[in-house]
Design goal:
- The protein is an alpha+beta fold.
- It contains six helices and nine strands; from the N terminus they run αααβββββαβββααβ.
- Strands 1, 2, 3, 4, 5, 6, 7, 8 and 9 form a nine-stranded mixed β-sheet that branches.
- A hairpin with a 3-residue loop joins strand 6 and strand 7.
- The longest helix is centred in the first third of the chain and has 16 residues.
- The protein is globular and about 45 Å long.
- The chain starts with a helix and ends in a 5-residue tail after the last strand.
- It binds heme C.
- Heme C (HEC) binds next to strand 3, strand 4 and strand 5.
Length: 224
C-alpha cells in the first residue's frame, strides 16, 4: 500500500517536469552569476545556455531578481514606447543596459549596450525567438546597413566597428540617455502587469510580468 502511494506521488512529480528537455537549462534554472549578466559577453553566454527556440519572455525570466530598471515613455528610438502603459524598459546591470518594449514595433527585439570609455557604448540588437548559437556576427548581421555602418547611426553618431574583447567586432557609438522627465515608475508598471489581460495582448503581459512581478523591478538611475 505504501509503495503504491509513493509510486503515484513520484509519478506526479515526474509529470510536472517531464516536458523540460534535460539537454538545456530551463528559463529560471540558470546559476546566480549567469542570471546577472554584466557585459554583452555575459548576455550572449546566458542566451546560449537557455532552451531553443528562445522566447524573449524566457530570457527575461532567466534574469535574477531584483532587477534595476529605467522605463521611459520615449517614442524617438529604434525601440519606441507605445505609451506610458507600454514604455521602453531598460534593465540596468553594472555598465551594461538591456532594452525591451512590451508592445509596438520593437517588441520582438532585445537591444543592449556596454560602456566603452566614457562617452560611447558597444551596441547590439537581437530578434526573438532565437534559434541556434548567437555570436558577434549574429549581432552585426542584424544591424549592419553597409559593411561599415549600422542602422543605429541615424541617431547614435560617431559610429565605428571595433574589436569587442577577443570575440569579434561590434559597433561603438555615442550614448543617448533616457530623459528622467519621461520616466515611468516601477510601481505603476507593476500594477499594469498584475492588471494585464493576456487575451488582449499576451506578449505585453508576459514581458511586464517577467520584469515587474517575477523580476521585482525597482527604479534606478542610468548607469552611464
Ligand atoms: C531614431 C533614433 C534612434 C535610432 C535609429 C537608434 N536609437 Fe538607440 N536610442 C535612441 C534614444 C533617443 C535613446 C535614449 C533612450 C530613449 O529615449 O529611448 C537611445 C538609447 C539607446 C540605448 C541605451 C543608451 C546607449 O546609448 O547605450 C541603447 C542600448 C540603444 N539605444 C540601442 C540602439 C541600437 C542597437 C540601435 C540600432 C539597431 C539604436 N539604438 C538605434 C534613439 C535611437
Amino acid at each position: 500500500m505504501i509503495t503504491i502511494v509513493f509510486t503515484l506521488l513520484s509519478a506526479g512529480c515526474t509529470d510536472d517536469k517531464g516536458n523540460e528537455s534535460s539537454a538545456s537549462t530551463s528559463c529560471t534554472g540558470v546559476t546566480d552569476s549567469m542570471g546577472r549578466p554584466k557585459t554583452i559577453e555575459d548576455t550572449i553566454n546566458l542566451i546560449n545556455a537557455l532552451p531553443r527556440p528562445l522566447s524573449l519572455e524566457c530570457f527575461l525570466n532567466s534574469l535574477k531578481a531584483p532587477l534595476n530598471v529605467f522605463a521611459v515613455n520615449s517614442t524617438f528610438s529604434a525601440q519606441p514606447a507605445v505609451d506610458q502603459n507600454s514604455p521602453r524598459i531598460f534593465i540596468l546591470q553594472d555598465k551594461m543596459v538591456l532594452s525591451v518594449a512590451p508592445a509596438g514595433i520593437g517588441r520582438t527585439l532585445l537591444e543592449f549596450s556596454e560602456l566603452n570609455g566614457s562617452i560611447e557604448t558597444f551596441k547590439g540588437e537581437l530578434e526573438f525567438p532565437i534559434e541556434g548559437t548567437v555570436t558577434m556576427d549574429t549581432i552585426l548581421a542584424k544591424i549592419s546597413q553597409t559593411s561599415t555602418t549600422s542602422t543605429c547611426l541615424t541617431c547614435h553618431t560617431s559610429e565605428r566597428k571595433v574589436a569587442y574583447k577577443t570575440l569579434g567586432s561590434l559597433y561603438v557609438s555615442k550614448i543617448l540617455r533616457p530623459n528622467e522627465s519621461q520616466r515611468i515608475n516601477s510601481s505603476y508598471l507593476k500594477n499594469q502587469a498584475t492588471a494585464c489581460n493576456p487575451s488582449i495582448n499576451k506578449h505585453r503581459c508576459e514581458v511586464l510580468n517577467a520584469i515587474f512581478v517575477n523580476g521585482q523591478a525597482q527604479d534606478a538611475s542610468f548607469p552611464f
